[in-house]
Design a protein that fits this description.
By secondary structure, the protein is of the alpha+beta class. It has ten helices and ten strands. The longest helix has 16 residues. This is DUF3109 family protein.
């Protein structure tokens, strides 16, 4: 592990390769799991702001869940997460004609309808951020639904931290990311990566 400011980064984030291959996985990370996506407290307001704009892209079942319990809930671990449908699907999912699952928020962002991309935890996936008091831990989350992303990442030789440059900057800032790149170069010189 390396530490930059109050953030500890696992070597797996620097070593492992990853590049989403949505044509193969069909966006399964948004529709599988035992809880919704982690949400930061300040993101709840953003989710509620974009809701009227994306409402028609959501399934009737998702709209019913949101009307009943809202856009987020507290899971069994005490974490704030996006509401889910059928005990697994994120309420913000939508599908294209090929059956690929997409985030309705990200779709609206890409179409210029909203200025919120999606929850940062989703943007950062397969990185998960752990909170350990004064420190944040940046870890690589392995999940079998992402096998195709690992294969494509290896083919393109794209490390996780480079694949996730934009969301890492969003979460920790440009200066932090530059420090990360410098640390990686130093580790390479020392043959630690």
């Amino acid at each position: 592990m390396i530490q930059i400011d109050d953030v500890v980064v696992s070597f797996d984030v620097l070593r492992e390769k990853f590049l989403c291959d949505i044509g193969v996985c069909k966006g399964e990370c948004c529709i599988e799991g035992d809880a919704g996506a982690p949400v930061e407290l300040d993101e709840v307001e953003k989710l509620e702001e974009v809701l009227p704009i994306i409402w028609n892209d959501l399934s009737p079942e998702a709209r019913a869940v949101i009307e009943k319990q809202g856009v987020v809930y507290t899971d069994q671990d005490g974490d704030l997460v996006t509401s889910i449908v059928n005990n697994k699907d994120c309420v913000f999912t939508c599908y294209d004609e090929k059956g690929c699952c997409y985030c309705a928020i990200e779709k609206a962002y890409r179409e210029g309808k909203v200025d919120f991309y999606k929850p940062v935890s989703c943007h950062l996936y397969p990185i998960r951020i752990g909170d350990y008091g004064p420190y944040k831990a940046v870890n690589y989350h392995r999940w079998d639904v992402c096998k195709a992303a690992v294969i494509l990442g290896k083919k393109e030789n794209l490390p996780v931290y480079k694949f996730l440059k934009e969301p890492l900057i969003r979460k920790f800032g440009e200066a932090w990311y530059q420090e990360l790149e410098l640390a990686v170069e130093e580790l390479k010189k020392q043959h630690m990566l």
